[in-house]
Amino acid sequence: MNLLLRDIGRFFLVVLVLTGLWAACYGAGFRINLTPSVPVGVYQLHKLEGPLKRGDIVWFCPPDTPLFRNVRDEWGDIPHGDCPGGYMHMFKPVAALPGDMVEVTHQGVFVNGHRLPNSQPMGRTGKGQRLNPAFGRFQVLPGTVWLVSSYHPQSFDSRYFGPLAMSQFEGIAYPFWIQKYSTASLTAADGKSK
Fold first, then answer.
1. Which one of 48, 76, 78, 146 has the fewest beta carbons within 10 angstroms of its own beta carbon?
2. Bridge partners of 114?
3. Pick the residue with more confidence: 145 or 8?
4. Topology of the domain covering 34-185
5. Which position has the higher pLDDT, 180 or 96?
6. In terms of Cα–Cα distance, which of 63, 91, 48 is closest to 164?
7. What is the C-alpha to C-alpha distance for residues 117 and 189, in angstroms, rounded to an integer?
8. What is the pLDDT averaged over residues 107-136?
């Protein structure tokens, strides 16, 4: 009986220590990303200070629109979370800034004339749901950005929902620890490798 009580006590001590460690990391802005839109890993969030740059990874609550509700409720691709509308926060890289020219074609997303890798729009999701890409040519308006992932060709991003208001963004996510990926596939909109 004493051995059983000792083992139970150890178990609860480990649970208490792990819970405290998780709370401390969460309070320090650490978040885990398990989606392929940005490299899988641990990120630390920082408040937005200064202008955004192409390639910055933003952390945001999706807008509560019919498209995002459908993706969450019907497709199950956005988990429920603590954002307004019941969404989970999302991580996405900034692809185009105010003043940039964006063109969405069947070949991919072009920013200032340069095609972004892995940006060819899909007609359907991997689960078979119909997608309606935002085909056309757009100038990015002040106060908005386009978020397009070059990390994964099936990312649900601005090629489908268009620009997002910067007021949606809660911070920039800096990689703390991420799985390795090839930087050769990442190209900035100005045509230079990152």
1. 76
2. 111
3. 145
4. Umud Fragment, subunit A (2.10.109)
5. 96
6. 63
7. 10
8. 90
Strands (E), the chain: 30-33, 41-46, 57-60, 90-96, 101-105, 108-111, 114-115, 136-139, 144-147, 164-165, 169-178
Q: Which amino acid is at 20?
A: G
**The tokens of 144 are what?**
């908005």
CB proximity list for 164: less than 8 A, separation 6 or greater: 60, 63, 144, 145, 146, 147, 158
Sign of the alpha-carbon dihedral angle for 34, 174, 27, 164: negative
Domain ranges of the chain: 34-185
Cα–Cα dist 171/162, whole Å: 20
| Span 89-115, average pLDDT | 96
* Mean pLDDT, residues 59-66 taken together: 90
Residue whose token pair is 């460690």: 21
Q: Could you tell me which residues are beta bridge partners of residue 111?
A: 102, 114
70 - beta bridge partners?
Answer: none
Q: Is 98 left (phi over 0), alpha (psi -120 to 50) or beta?
A: beta
Radius of gyration of the chain (CA): 20
Distance between CA atoms of 135 and 82, rounded to whole angstroms? 31
Helix and strand element counts for the chain (H, E):
3, 11
CB 165 within 8 A of CB 94: no
